Amino acid sequence: MTRALRVGYFVALAMLTVGCATQESNAAPKENTKGRKPAPAFALKDADGRSVSLADYKGKVVLLNFWATWCGPCKIEIPWFVEFEQKYKDRGFAVLGVAMDDEGWEVVKPYLTKTKVNYRILVGNDKVAADYGGVDSLPTSFVIDKAGQIVSTHVGLVSKSDYENEIVQLLGGGGAGAKRTD
Fold first, then answer.
1. 114: domain CATH number?
2. How confident is the model over 46-105, as pLDDT tens digits?
3. Residues 60, 28: contact at Cβ < 8 Å?
């Protein structure tokens, strides 16, 4: 490996590590519903061209994930979200992925086929990103309660257990590894 190649490798690795390490979490406990803000409404197209709105998911706990096919940390989280969708969908939970790739469905559809994503994917735009506070980093995820209120915001890679604990708590407990609060 040439010196220039090694330097480039370490620079890329450092950038990925810094991107993954910078996580920002604004989690609110279940009991504290005061101060929660409504999740901004949107209508985006899914892979079949159908319009999907956040209002379609009222009454469910939603993990709204802004991601892209080129995003390393996003690729780490997607299998977790596939697992959560399978494990908790019958309890009133849904994952919604909002792909922020500039090329849109041209790159997103092949990626979905390859990764076998089992939850609804939409292609986002600048307006939706702005409505959610200016999504500047990927991944950025919002955990939304059954009333459509944002419970927490996660910027960057967050641990699988953090997501799962929030989901289980909002669903009323009873999941594997969940802390019961009754």
1. 3.40.30.10
2. 999 999 999 999 999 999 999 999 999 999 999 999 999 999 999 999 999 999 999 999
3. no
**Is the overall model pTM greater than 0.85, yes or no?**
no
Q: How many domains does the chain have?
A: 1
Structure token pair of residue 177: 């590894």
Residue 104, judged by CB atoms within 10 A of its CB (0-12, 13-18, 19+), counts as: middle
Domain extent at residue 34 = 25-171
Do the domain assignments include residue 111?
yes
> pLDDT tens digits for 17-55?
334 433 444 444 444 566 789 999 999 999 999 999 999
Report how far residue 18's alpha carbon sits from residue 83's, in angstroms, rounded to the nearest whole number: 26
Please report, for residues 18, 21, 61, 71, 101, the alpha-carbon distance to residue 138 in angstroms, rounded to integers and kept in the order given.
13, 12, 21, 7, 11
